């Protein structure tokens, strides 16, 4: 549910303004009303710093996970998160420069390597004696071994399809012999191979030293950076409060407006009364767009992160989280649909959860619930790690074979789930319309709901007893008539009846085509569950068919294929089992429930706490 909000307008004398804000931040219940949307330059800089710092922390967390033994990494001496962040920027800048230097040195090494080891000093002395060494290169196919007899040539190496050789030239002419026209002369290397390799080694040592410093920060400095980030967020919050404050009475009075949840109003008013601060209090109205604070039971609360992936509801509508939560859980189980995968997911999370951070545990609990749903649907379809228990039941399940659902039944079940969720969404849409506009605006929605449900019910009754004629009977005819009145005549209480008829016809076209398309979308539940089961069977078959007959080797190969194959299937099918129920929720269900969205999350002005 959405917690009701109250708007408080505080009138504060300018001399007491700073003290008032400090106490308001200490209580931490007031979401400041924003009168101005465009942030100042100072605020933009802080936003950028916080964003960059958040990325830095995430990078360091990934780096820490890659360190083989964090316990042996030395501690850091720096105690300031701000200076530590500056040092990280310096290290990253230095590493970038070092990487460029290494690339240049490695390129130089590659160019010098074919010439082997030589002495630049010896070459210089020969040059002073008018004996010049010319460094030449040509493709292997163009190199003529006769040159070695004809000219003072020494072949140094043949590398990558090229011949590297030196011509001893005592003449002052810069022209090469005529038969060497396709030979290229390169400049004398400025460094020897040994010198370049020493530089590479020294430069790499600098990079290793800087990387080790980053390792130390990743292991011991993240908490300092998080504290610094918290201070920046608090600083931004302080600036924003002052930015949103309205000055009245020639600067003598400050007007601070804030939203406060209903369950926090007593705490705030008790403090305000003690401080003798004048304030006005009024309930939130929809046109003011108050912030959204969700409050649900323990089960539905686990699905609130899913709600926030799309959008928070608007203030005047229902919070759909508790209504889609059971469906989402069942849909995930339907799509993954393997009892073995679900059992593995539940057990793995149960082992890992005690070691996880506190803020991660609700998400892990949600994953366990999805795993339980997977076990349920795996039991319904008779699938366990890709083994089809319907076709190959173990002895203790031989009598229960008929209890499993086959593909046709699962296809029908997917459509039933879709129909139930769509109709449930229509009921929620009607309730939303009543809450927001009044009962008269919901008549069209109730008309469609009555028409669809009555038609389905009487059609099913006729299939059981064809001679009864319930579908075209008087009761159904009356219900259809009532539905038609709601859809075409009373769909809008303030419009002309002829406009209502035209709008009803357009609505009928959209409803008929839309509901059919929405219903067919739920076939994806069946398709994904079937695909997961088939992939599991395929990997099982590969594992046993490709294993050699050598006893120990065969078992090892089988286990490797099973682990890799089912690992791939769990990842791919698990991802699809999450994404496609999201689509069914945010598209089909939200549309039929008349979801508006666009709510802004409630964020009270408070002292920012460091994340656990």
Question: Can you tell me about this structure?
Answer:
The chain is of the alpha+beta class and 612 residues long. It folds into 4 domains: 5-70 and 222-288, no CATH class; 77-109 and 198-220; 118-191; 310-390 and 406-592, no CATH class. It contains 19 helices and 11 strands. Strands 1, 2, 7, 8 and 9 form a 5-stranded antiparallel β-sheet that branches. The chain has a 4-stranded antiparallel β-sheet with strand order 4-5-3-6. A two-stranded antiparallel sheet has the order 10-11. A hairpin with a 4-residue loop joins strand 7 and strand 8 (253-261). The longest helix has 42 residues, at 551-592. The chain is extended and about 120 Å long. The mean pLDDT is 87.
* Mean pLDDT over all positions: 87
- Binned, the helix content reads 55-70%
Taken as a percent bin, the fraction of beta residues is: 5-15%
Choose one word for the global shape: extended
What Rg is obtained from the alpha carbons, in whole angstroms?
37 Å
β-strand number: 11
Q: Can you count the helices?
A: 19
Which structural category fits the helices and strands? alpha+beta
Tally of separate domains = 4
Extract low-pLDDT stretches: none
Q: Characterize the biggest β-sheet.
A: 5 strands, antiparallel
Secondary-structure element sequence?
Answer: EHEHHHEHEEEHHEEHEHHHHHEEHHHHHH
Intertermini distance: 27 Å
């Amino acid at each position: 549910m959405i917690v009701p909000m109250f708007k408080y307008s505080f009138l504060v004398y300018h001399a007491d303004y700073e003290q008032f804000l400090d106490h308001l931040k200490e209580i931490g219940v007031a979401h400041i009303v924003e009168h101005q949307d465009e942030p100042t330059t100072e605020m933009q800089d802080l936003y950028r710093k916080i964003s960059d710092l958040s990325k830095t922390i995430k990078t360091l967390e990934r780096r820490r996970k890659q360190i083989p033994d964090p316990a042996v990494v030395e501690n850091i001496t720096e105690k300031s998160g701000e200076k530590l962040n500056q040092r990280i920027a310096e290290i990253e800048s230095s590493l970038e420069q070092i990487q460029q230097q290494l690339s240049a040195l490695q390129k130089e090494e590659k160019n010098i390597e074919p010439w082997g080891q030589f002495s630049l000093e010896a070459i210089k002395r020969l040059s002073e004696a008018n004996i010049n060494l010319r460094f030449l290169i040509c493709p292997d196919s163009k190199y003529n071994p006769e040159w070695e007899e004809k000219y003072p040539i020494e072949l140094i190496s043949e590398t990558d399809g090229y011949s590297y050789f030196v011509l001893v030239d005592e003449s002052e002419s810069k022209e090469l012999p005529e038969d060497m026209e396709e030979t290229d002369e390169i400049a004398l290397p400025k460094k020897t191979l040994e010198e370049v390799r020493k530089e590479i080694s020294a430069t790499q040592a600098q990079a290793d030293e800087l990387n080790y410093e980053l390792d130390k920060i990743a292991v011991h400095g993240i908490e300092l950076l998080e504290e610094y980030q918290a201070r920046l967020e608090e600083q931004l919050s302080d600036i924003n409060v002052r930015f949103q404050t309205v000055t009245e009475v020639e600067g003598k009075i400050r007007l601070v407006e804030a939203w406060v949840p209903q369950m926090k109003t007593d705490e705030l008013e008790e403090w305000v009364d003690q401080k003798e601060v004048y304030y006005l209090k009024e309930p939130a109205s929809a046109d003011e767009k108050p912030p959204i604070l969700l409050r649900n039971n323990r089960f539905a609360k686990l699905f609130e992160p899913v709600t926030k992936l799309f959008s928070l509801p608007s203030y005047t509508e229902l919070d759909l989280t508790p209504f889609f939560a059971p469906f989402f859980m069942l849909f995930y189980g339907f799509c993954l649909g393997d009892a073995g995968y679900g059992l593995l997911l539940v057990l793995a999370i149960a082992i890992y959860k005690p070691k996880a951070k506190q803020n991660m545990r609700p998400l892990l609990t949600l994953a366990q619930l999805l795993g339980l749903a997977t076990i349920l649907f795996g039991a319904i379809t008779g699938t366990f790690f890709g083994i089809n228990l319907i076709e190959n039941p173990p002895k203790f399940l031989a009598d229960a074979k008929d209890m499993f659902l086959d593909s046709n039944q699962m296809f029908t079940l997917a459509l039933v789930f879709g129909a139930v969720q769509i109709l449930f969404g229509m009921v929620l849409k009607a309730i939303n319309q009543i809450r927001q506009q009044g009962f008269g605006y919901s008549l069209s929605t109730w008309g469609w709901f009555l028409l669809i449900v009555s038609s389905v019910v009487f059609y099913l009754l006729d299939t059981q007893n064809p001679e009864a004629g319930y579908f075209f009977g008087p009761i159904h005819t009356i219900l259809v008539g009532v539905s038609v009145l709601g859809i075409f005549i009373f769909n809008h209480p303030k419009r002309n009846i002829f406009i209502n008829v035209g709008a009803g016809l357009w609505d009928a076209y959209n409803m008929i085509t839309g509901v059919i398309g929405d219903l067919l979308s739920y076939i994806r539940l069946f398709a994904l569950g079937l695909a997961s089961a088939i992939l599991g069977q395929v990997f099982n078959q590969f594992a046993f068919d490709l294993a050699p007959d050598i006893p120990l080797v065969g078992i090892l190969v089988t286990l490797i294929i099973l682990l890799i194959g089912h690992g791939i299937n769990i990842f791919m099918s698990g991802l699809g089992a999450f994404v496609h129920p999201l689509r069914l929720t945010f598209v089909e269900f939200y549309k039929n429930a008349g979801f508006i969205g666009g709510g802004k999350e409630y964020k009270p002005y408070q002292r920012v706490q460091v994340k656990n």
